[in-house]
Amino acid sequence: MVEILSLPFVQNALIAAVLLSIAAGVIGSLVVVNRIVFLSGGIAHTAYGGVGIAFFFGFSPLLGAGVVSVLAALLMARITLNNRHKSDAAIGVIWAAGMAIGVIFTDFSSGYNGDLTSYLFGSLAAIESGDLLAFGAIDVAILIWIFAYYHRILAIAFDEEFAKSKGVNVAWLYAALLVLASLSIVIAIRLVGLMLVIALLTIPVWIAQTYAKSLWRTMIYAAILSFIFITIGFALSIVFNATSGAAVVAIAAIAFVVSSGVNALRR
Length: 267
Prior knowledge:
This protein is mainly alpha-helical and 267 residues long. It has helices spanning 2-5, 8-33, 37-57, 61-82, 87-107, 116-121, 129-158, 160-165, 170-192, 197-211, 215-240, 244-266.
């Protein structure tokens, strides 16, 4: 066990698990409370366009996914704020377009890169030191934002019209939430993959909401649960030589079923 923990890729994976858990706990809670899970899924799949473009032009896929997902988040924020009744269709179009662009650029990339699979299904073993610096910077931005605007964010989450009547800049905070959600999704894509990212942002929050009495407690509980699921899933992926992202989400799903069953018995 000690020998395994001394391996650089294992150490990087554990640090990444801590950093992702912070982002998943905070942003995941806001995604669930604000009922924008579908919108976040759209951002996640649109980010694949950035991955494909990055492979084609030969720069960092993480950077490509980050830029495209932020642009998609800003576009979706504008659409959903101005045309709520058409937002679902618009998100679906952006989602499909992003995926199509990613597939096309990947098809035309010279020398197909096998690392593409890690962006679809995650790979904790592929985390590098540069990734950790990027993850840490995103976490710092999220924590500064949540501490500075927590009460306004809380007001928007539970009563948007009341928040507007009190002079809260709803549009700016909503756009900031989507941008930070897009960056959190980019972190999660690297660890659990594009196909499973939304599960990691939502399942720990759904479990945490059962036991938490406030939004900030939900964030803390969800962050702790995320770390537990990631570390157990990573350990199982090493033991059974399985895909780490799938293992992490499978553990989270089992925990959700168990928690739901316990709650049903208690009621």
